[in-house]
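Fresh eyes needed here. I'd like your take on this protein's tokenised backbone:
***
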Amino acid sequence: MIEKWLLDSRCNIIHYFDLPKDWWPITQGDNQSKATAWANDFFLRALDALYPKESDLVIACNKGRVTRSEAAVFYAGYSNHSQSQIMLDFVAVRWDDAMPIKLTAESEMNAADSVGEPTTAKGYIWDFFKLLVVPCKYRLYMARASGVEKMKQVATCMRKLYQRHRGNLFSETDQFGGVVIPGAEKQRNETLILWTEGGVLQCEKISDFPLICED
């Protein structure tokens, strides 16, 4: 499912912004804002799959640099969209429930960001750590890194941090899904997919990443 959400959301972004069918968020121009929009659409697709037809959920997510009309397209079907973040980049919540937070997500789409300990309060692992400390059944993460080695480094640090804290920050029923995409289109098939299974944060390369998005 994670692969499908990722591929479908990229095609959605291409359609929303009328981008070339082979668009990829390289590190130049406004591609970081478009990459962040891709992440938000990825999160929304996961939300639709995990909580189908629950349009009363509040989506707390800053629309970023997309316009108000474009944001309206993203959140169509959800009656409540708040641009005020709730600790994380993306949170789906129903406040009247006993467990109000339904899905949390973070994205780090600056391909040149740092990889280090979460105590540095910046970079890929800090964003991932924030996901760990906010209790939620479903948690998602999307990152963009420059180069295959840096992608692997991000994934390795995530797996180590998860293993270190899974006993006290994750319950047995909590689920995590993540992706690390490259900054260069030619490396798209090096995209890494991460998910929790058997008490371990698993990681493997995407099976296939088609370049062209067909209508």
About this structure: The beta strands are 58-60, 80-82, 90-93, 101-108, 138-145, 175-182, 192-197, 200-205. The chain has one domain: 2-22+29-205. The chain has five helices and eight strands.
